[in-house]
UniProtKB/TrEMBL annotation:
The keyword Acyltransferase applies. The lineage of its organism: Bacteria, Pseudomonadati, Pseudomonadota, Betaproteobacteria, Burkholderiales. Keywords: Acyltransferase, Transferase. SUPFAM superfamilies: Acyl-CoA N-acyltransferases (Nat). It comes from Comamonas nitrativorans. This is GNAT family N-acetyltransferase.
Amino acid sequence: MSAVVSAPVNHWAIRPLTAADVDSLLHIQTQAYGVQFCESRAVFARRLAAGHQCSLGVERPGESGLLAYAAAYWSAVGHITALNGDFDPPPPQAAPALYLHDISVLPALAGQKVAHALVLRLMELARSRAVAHMALVAVQGSSRFWQRYGFAEQKVTSPIEQQHLDSYGAGALYMTRRL
């Protein structure tokens, strides 16, 4: 994983996630999502151990525990990670993309632009590696949020990728953005 320099954002700092962050990440996930979108400790431990992950966390300097996170990895356009799926390495010769699997912020920080800071940092990270695309699955009616960042729905043509998309339930949309 490329090093991401920790930089203050208001009164927090953004840094790469590590395996030591799993418990804190799960706490945020439990606070922010309904039961149907909570993923297991084992899944997140494998994801954070993957060499191609580029996940970020937000913390207050000098305090323990995360305030927010963005689970992301280097992937390929058209590849969708299923709910509870591993961060598979990108297929060879596919158009590279930064896949944003999950972004979650503690409810107490709502409205403080924490998610905005994470999205901008991931865009910066992708551009620094000359990756021209980002992709994600929008759930729980979040597609309008993602449209503000230039993401648009992309039709899924692969039956396997459609199964992965369907794992998120009705209304889930695969979205991409060109950087």
